[in-house]
């Protein structure tokens, strides 16, 4: 699963890294080392631009950095509270679940992360680990998004929300938890984001052992358990007798 992650880069950095244009404006969240559900998060989307009448241009598409709320609220939801229970979508069933199947066909995104946290299942108390790229490049977690409008207030600003896709854990990651975010290699970003691609079945599979072996996992402080804690120190390694990977 994915229930917490770190996102400390400025939108301009993400725009350069994902070859996108920054459209976050005043909505951009501050660096967050303990991103939790219902918080605003950065996302990468690619859409056909629309003209003044709202008609999309089928001949070109634009990739942008946007801000969404973590926790998917489907357009048919009665209220946005459902989002707190829909932070993840399983890659194995996302194409068939009513809440997700439309989004995975038409509304896909990447959720950039410095790294994510996972808690070791058989430790007591549960030991958190942090998984990241050793070169500090962003992870591109596969995501889906939706736009919800309040039926009681049609004039209110729409809520744009998202969920992280998860998959079966690979390699050493499975020793901590059986699930992990669906991390896509950069070579697959264009296919995932392509607004004209309605079938991404070939991407809804666990990442390669090569990609996972490249990651680094380290035990970190249990301070991350509280969403009130938010500092770079949360991602720093701490001693742990049964640490699985090097830091």
TrEMBL record:
Residues 1-36, 43-62, 226-247 are annotated as: Disordered. It comes from the Bacteria. Keywords: Covalent protein-DNA linkage, DNA damage, DNA-binding, Hydrolase, Lyase, Protease. Residues 48-62, 238-247 have a biased composition (Basic and acidic residues). It is an enzyme of class 3 (hydrolase). GO terms for biological process: protein-DNA covalent cross-linking repair; proteolysis. Its EC number is 3.4.-.-. The keyword Ribosomal protein does not apply. GO terms for molecular function: lyase activity; peptidase activity; single-stranded DNA binding. InterPro entries: SRAP (IPR003738), SRAP-like (IPR036590). This is Abasic site processing protein. It comes from Actinopolyspora mzabensis. The lineage of its organism: Bacteria, Bacillati, Actinomycetota, Actinomycetes, Actinopolysporales.
